[in-house]
Structure formats: structure tokens, C-alpha cells
Amino acid sequence: MKIYISVDMEGISGLVDHTHVDSRLHNYERSRKIMTQEANAVVKTAFDKGFEEVIINDSHSKMNNILIEELHPETKLITGDVKPYSMVQGLDDSFDAVVFVGYHARASMKGVMTHSMIFGVRNMYINDVQVGELGFNAYVAGYYGVPVIMVSGDDQTALEAESLIPGVHCAVVKEVASRSAAKSLTPVKAQELIKERTSQAIDDVHSIKPLIPPDHPTLRIEFANYGQAEWASLMPGTELEPGTTIVKFQAKDIKEAYQAMLVMTELAMRTTFC
């Protein structure tokens, strides 16, 4: 049995603002240690429950945050950037389950450090379903028939996960006070909760269904600024909807939609203030 773990940073216990998640700033080194510990909590539980192979994908920023020397020695780590499938790099139909650790709620939602890939995105849609990183990544897992069984993060992340994935288990490691403040469990207690919820999710794995994406999905991204939409619409096959900052792309499948999203958001980041 194989389990895939995608680990972001904004939803880790005790992390509440950019000083914790930016590698240039003073709280980052502390934060990456806690991030590694929370990943290890899932890893240890998975091995204890009988999984033979555990793959972790470092999914935050430049994707080289997790301290490999502190991971369970039998773990394999996907690390570094650029990755063709970013937060779900290496995920395929050989896995039995997926866990998201340290995830955050989508842009336009209440929650700690909420966003969707970049700060210039206001909303993303797959057909009529509003998604952020969590939802988009769960759709890719669903494309391969693999269920997302457990998500850790703040209370708003849990609400988002539960609205998309019936039966998913959630470990709420902090409660939102504002976008940059929370009431958090200590790392020790957060890791205990993550182990407990992961164990329950593994026991329940056969009753949690994959989030199956639509065939030939339409991706629509609403940007905060018209300039960002202009840049994104330079990608061939896109359409800038008149009178909006929404860029549309008709994809052959969710994998193509995912890569289109990556290209569009990278282009949008070229927009300058003036």
C-alpha cells in the first residue's frame, strides 16, 4: 500500500503570518522544523498502519522547506522547484490514499494566510465549482481515482475540505482570529491530533470517495487586477471574458487545466504596480 502526502506551510500549527513562511525572514527556520514534524506525524502513522511506501511532496513556495534529515528514514521526499504538477507532483493511480498537511483555505475565504497559488487570484473555478489549492489538488487525485482522506490546517480549511470531500477527516490545529492571527495548538498537541485523525482516516479509507473531476473541464480564474488578467490571457487557448478580470481556458482534462493554471498564475505575477 502507498500513501501520498502533500505538505504546505500556511496551515501548520503556530504559523500565522508571512514571517513564518518566507525563507528570508526570522521565523522561517523555526517554522520549517514544525512543518517537518507535522509531516512526520502522518508518516509514522502510515507506517504503523501497514503502508509500505510513503511519498511526501514539499508543496510550499520553492518547495525545498522540509528537512529531509529529520524525516522518517523510509520516507521518499519530492523536493524542489520547478515541478510540472507543483503541489501534486508524482501523484498517480498507484497510490491508495492522499493526505494534505498544513493546507490553508482558498482566496476570498476567511482563514490564516488565505490565497490561491498567488495573491493576485481572487477566485478559481472548475466549471461552476469554486476551488483553491485544496480543491484543485483533490481533483487531480480524483482523476487517478485516489481519495483525499485527511486534511490538516485551520478551522476554515476544514470547512472547505468537508464541503468538497464527503467523509474526509480533518485535523484542526488552529482556529482563525484573523488572516494573520489564530488560537493554535502547540506543535506537540497538533502532532498528536494529526496522528489520531490520520489513523481514523486510514481505517475509513474505503468509505471516502475520490473527488472526481469533470470531463473536459472549463478553468476560469478571476484575477484581482486587469493587468494580471491581461498577462494570463497571453497563454494560447485562453479567453479574457469581456468586462471582467476572468480568464477562461477549456481543458481536455483536469491535468491540462492544472498546468494551465500554473502557467496563467506565473504570467500574472509579472504584473507590476505601475
Automatic annotation (TrEMBL):
One function term, GO molecular function aspect: aminopeptidase activity
Coiled-coil ranges (or none): none
Keyword match Hydrolase: yes
Keyword Hydrolase attributed: yes
Keywords annotated in UniProt: Aminopeptidase, Hydrolase, Protease
InterPro entries (alphabetical): DppA_N, Peptidase_M55, Peptidase_M55_sf
Protein name stated in the entry: Aminopeptidase
Organism of this sequence: Sutcliffiella horikoshii
